[in-house]
Specification:
By secondary structure, the chain is of the alpha/beta class. It is built from 15 helices and 16 strands. An eight-stranded mixed sheet has the order 1-10-12-11-13-16-14-15, with helices on both faces. Strands 3-2-9-5-6-7-8-4 form an eight-stranded mixed sheet, sandwiched between helices. The two termini are 36 Å apart. The structure holds zinc ion. Zinc ion (ZN) binds at residues 279, 291-292, 324, 350.
Length: 472
């Protein structure tokens, strides 16, 4: 519950036009502390987007509705230069049939969903012997042609990790497994979902096929169904395990997607802006509360809170990227369109809504004073200073292309892969207190960055910067 004093302070932040009648603006520190207990933006954004739009697969009419919804929300909440920047993309849709049935030796249905870019099976499905691979490396090791006429099943042993690093360990089963199986002659692939839950929800996600390798049907089994299939192998005693798989996803050609952008215009708009990124799209089966409505809510809230404390020196630009899940099309399009406009620093939120526990930058060596200042400012929120070199998130292609400054605010990913790309990625999974901790840390960090007059990357003066314009 909010203390009355804090509620009053938050109200004064929300109504900056009354500033003349109220005490001077709060310090950034005080503001961030208030956000920790009272933020009216981030949760409201997630609640609104998941309620009024829900799943929003890239390139579809649902994603277009999400863009329109976000534009309206940004305008209503004090952003300027709000726009949709459209781009065209090759669009894949999942179809409405996804069935897997073990036909021998222990006949029963398994729960399956197609992976992004999967081919369809023939109508009525395909039935074939399943070959079991414990890992992608086991699959890589078998001779070319050895899977002719077979379905490859790929497992892995992913576990929950705070830093999400097991995604890199298990992810290849999904990212490249189908392509490798296809290149060895397989007629289809099913994988154990790349996830850590125990629900009968397959985790979808993108897969890929190398140039010159024709896509094959590729599905993900839920984790309990994958475990069941593996038990069948263990007791088949040499008998073939056969499966009938039927799915009807398809490529529908080029459709429109787009990025949504908005700004808090700084006092000196000629200085390179601070870029805050998230993605607006989700998979068709996932309401995308964690992935990534939460990230969009966090960056928007932080920008708003910084603006409430007074107009920042630099412009803060938000990028709600389209078509991230299906191949970073929005990130690529944004970089292509804006590569000539230098970005001061880029930050992305795309790892759910649980608390931030570590701060990393890529300028710890080149601008140690600023790195230390930021680290000291977030320490009171339980955020440690890391020594990893920040790489930025998927939607920050432009900053990587410009070789610019990046910050990673690492979130606790322990629960993330329970929900990732599943129907369980819903609003009730958001912990409001942890979400507010994100917003508080972001407000603190973005507030410092947006008022930094020297180069973020090096700390040196920006000679070409015209004198700072004061006031409006
Ligand atoms: Zn995401």
């Amino acid at each position: 519950m909010t203390k009355p004093l804090l509620a009053l302070a938050a109200l004064s932040l929300a109504l900056p036009t009354l500033a003349t009648a109220t005490p001077p603006p709060l310090t950034l520190e005080a503001q961030s502390d208030i956000v920790l207990v009272d933020d009216r933006y981030a949760y409201a954004f997630v609640e609104g987007l998941t309620t009024e739009v829900g799943p929003r697969q890239a390139g579809t009419e649902a994603e277009a509705r999400a863009r329109a919804w976000a534009v309206e929300w940004l305008k209503k909440n004090g952003f300027t230069n709000v726009a949709i920047e459209p781009f065209m993309m090759d669009t894949w849709v999942p179809g409405d049939i996804a069935r897997a049935r073990v036909t021998a030796p222990f006949a029963q249905d398994l729960v399956v969903l197609p992976l992004g870019d999967s081919a369809a099976t023939p109508v009525g499905g395909i039935e074939a012997e399943v070959v079991f691979f414990r890992t992608v490396d086991d699959l890589r090791a078998v001779p070319d042609g050895s899977l002719k006429g077979k379905i490859a099943y790929i497992s892995h042993a992913m576990s929950r990790t705070q830093d999400g690093s097991q995604y890199g360990f298990a992810g290849p089963a999904r990212w490249v497994g189908a392509g490798i199986a296809a290149s060895k002659g397989a007629v289809a692939t099913v994988i154990k979902s790349v996830g850590t839950d125990n629900h009968r929800n397959p985790h979808t996600g993108g897969t890929s096929f190398p140039d010159g390798v024709a896509p094959i049907p590729a599905g993900a089994l839920s984790l309990p169904d994958a475990a069941n299939l593996e038990r069948m192998f263990a007791r088949a005693q040499g008998r073939p395990v056969t499966m009938r798989l039927e799915m009807n996803p398809r490529q529908i050609g080029q459709t429109e997607s787009g990025n949504v952008v908005g700004e808090i215009v700084g006092r000196n708009p000629s200085l390179p802006p601070v870029l805050l990124a998230c993605h607006l799209d989700s998979w068709w089966n996932a309401p995308g509360a964690f992935d990534d409505a939460a990230g969009c809510g966090i960056i928007i809230a932080a920008a708003r809170h910084v603006a409430s404390g007074g107009r920042p020196l630099r412009t803060i630009r938000v990028l709600l990227a389209g078509a991230e899940e299906v191949g970073l099309f929005g990130s690529t399009a944004y970089s292509k369109a804006h590569i000539g406009e230098p970005i001061a620093v880029g930050l992305e939120s795309d790892f759910g809504a649980d608390r931030i526990w570590r701060f990393d930058s890529n300028f710890r060596e080149s601008n140690p004073a600023l790195h230390k200042k930021l680290a000291a400012a977030v320490a009171r929120f339980g955020v440690s200073s890391g020594t990893d070199v920040a790489g930025g998130g998927a939607d920050l292609n432009i900053v990587r292309d410009q070789k610019g400054a990046l910050i990673d605010l690492q979130q606790d990913g322990t629960r993330y892969f329970d929900l990732h790309h599943t129907p369980d990625d819903t609003l009730d999974k958001i912990d409001p207190a942890q979400l507010r901790q994100n917003v508080a840390v972001w407000t603190q960090v973005v507030g410092i960055l947006a008022n930094e007059s020297t180069s973020i990357q090096t700390g040196s003066p920006i000679p070409s910067a015209p004198p700072i314009m004061e006031g409006k």
